[in-house]
Write a structure and sequence with these properties.
Structural class: mainly alpha
Largest sheet: none
Number of helices: 10
Strand content: under 5%
Helix content: over 70%
Order of helices and strands: HHHHHHHHHH
Radius of gyration: 19 Å
Length: 287
């Protein structure tokens, strides 16, 4: 993988991460167009590390509002921590159940099959983009018009967490798009839905990184004499990609967040439907 390819993937990830259009779907399609296999351990680790770069950009960008929302007092922090943990636990439960069902039912004919084998399936990505697009359009057009003082409680956190769990196995089903849409449909104010969605992303990303690092190491057969150099070669593209996606995310955040705040949520859904059609065309021609 060349530096130019890593730069292209990082730029796409950084630009698309804050929009509810599934940055991973865009990155996977770009990777395929460049002749890369998005299902390999090296590529799945790179994709996760690209998310990590934009996660740090999100932390930098949202830190002030999080400090006011989550860290203003010990009581406020404990309440936010409880809601985030409830949501994250339910995300894990739903995601693990879906993973087990898919691996044992859909992929049962493949020895030692893992869910990552589906990550490069453009037909499935197209279907996931379509589902995300419909959800976003419904939330944008018919979501409850909540005020900025709308509350987010245990029920809302649990439902958002379960929706997030549905997104984990499917590239193209935008995590932020689904969770923010769920919040809007539950009557949560847009600002609070955004803050909560990206807070969940910060909690969710580290264990996903750990899983992909473990998967990458397990897939490698290394000798003691070449282990250090080989590992450096494996992780270098991911680290470079993380740094580049962080920079791209910072550059794009102000414009993207400003556009998101103008109440044009449903337009992201229409874009997802167009993107789904393009991806499905690629799938039909056997890309």
């Amino acid at each position: 993988m060349t530096i130019l390819q890593i730069f292209a993937l990082a730029a796409v990830q950084g630009a698309a991460e804050l929009l509810p259009v599934s940055s991973s779907a865009h990155v996977i399609v770009i990777a395929k167009l460049m002749g890369l296999d998005p299902t390999t351990p090296e590529m799945t680790l790179l994709l996760v590390m690209l998310h990590t770069g934009t996660m740090f950009a999100v932390i930098c960008y949202f830190w002030r509002s999080w400090r006011e929302s989550f860290f203003a007092s010990r009581k406020q922090f404990m309440r936010a921590f409880k809601l985030i943990m409830i949501s994250t636990i339910l995300t894990g439960m739903v995601g693990l159940v879906l993973k087990a069902v898919i691996e044992r039912a859909v992929l049962r004919e493949i020895p030692n099959a893992e869910i990552e084998l589906l990550f490069g399936n453009l037909g499935l990505i197209s279907a996931a983009l379509t589902a995300a697009g419909v959800l976003i359009i419904v939330a944008g057009l018919y979501g409850k018009r909540a005020s900025t003082s709308a509350d987010l409680g245990v029920r809302e956190s649990a439902l958002i967490g379960m929706v997030q769990g549905l997104c984990l196995p499917f590239r193209g089903f935008s995590r932020s798009g689904a969770t923010i849409s769920a919040g809007l449909l539950l009557g949560i104010a847009r600002e609070k839905a955004e803050e909560f969605s990206f807070a969940l992303a910060v909690i969710l990303t580290p264990p996903v990184i750990a899983r992909e690092v473990w998967r990458l190491l397990k897939a490698q057969t290394l000798t003691t004499s070449t282990q250090g150099a080989h590992l450096a070669g494996l992780f270098f593209p991911s680290i470079v990609g993380m740094v580049l996606s962080f920079l791209a995310g910072l550059l794009a955040l102000r414009w993207l967040s400003s556009w998101l705040e103008k109440g044009r949520w449903q337009f992201f859904g229409f874009y997802c439907l167009v993107a789904a059609s393009v991806v499905f065309t690629f799938y039909r021609i056997g890309m």
